[in-house]
Amino acid sequence: QVHLVESGGGLVQPGGSLRLSCVASGFRFSDYGMSWVRQAPGKGLEWLADIDRSGGVNYEEPAKDRFFISRDNAKSILYLQMTNLKEEDTAVYYCSRGGIRGQGTQVFVSS
């Protein structure tokens, strides 16, 4: 059974940084591409970035040059390093494997 647990969210001031983590279990992590998505209040899911099995990455516009996705296959952990955070980055952040998501971690950007 696929199990994804996100953590690392919190309250941060504009311009700040956070690193999100997603611990995966129930499947061979190294065999799958993974993604980060988010959902802002009152909005739909927004794809941010994905990373394939070999570490190749792709970013959607909101994440380009500010967010960085990475993975540790030995530990089955997916990361999202977020820098220069803006108030519009306030959202619940989820890691995803083929549409399966964890419970999410809340990021709140405010001064």
What would you note in describing this structure?
With 111 residues, this protein is mainly beta. Helices cover 0% and strands 52% of the residues. The chain has no helices and eleven strands. It has strands spanning 3-7, 10-12, 18-25, 34-39, 45-51, 57-59, 67-72, 77-82, 91-97, 100-101, 105-109. The strands form two sheets. Strands 2, 4, 5, 6, 9, 10 and 11 form a seven-stranded mixed beta sheet that branches. The protein is globular. The mean pLDDT is 96.
- Taking the alpha carbons of the first and last residues, their distance comes to 40 Å
For the residues shown, what is the average pLDDT?
96
The helix/strand order is EEEEEEEEEEE
The largest sheet is:
7 strands, mixed
Indicate the overall shape.
Answer: globular
Strand content: over 45%
State the total count of DSSP E strands: 11
Low-confidence stretches: none
Q: Rg from C-alpha positions? A: 13 Å
Number of helices: 0
Structural class, from helix and strand content?
Answer: mainly beta
Helix share of residues? under 10%
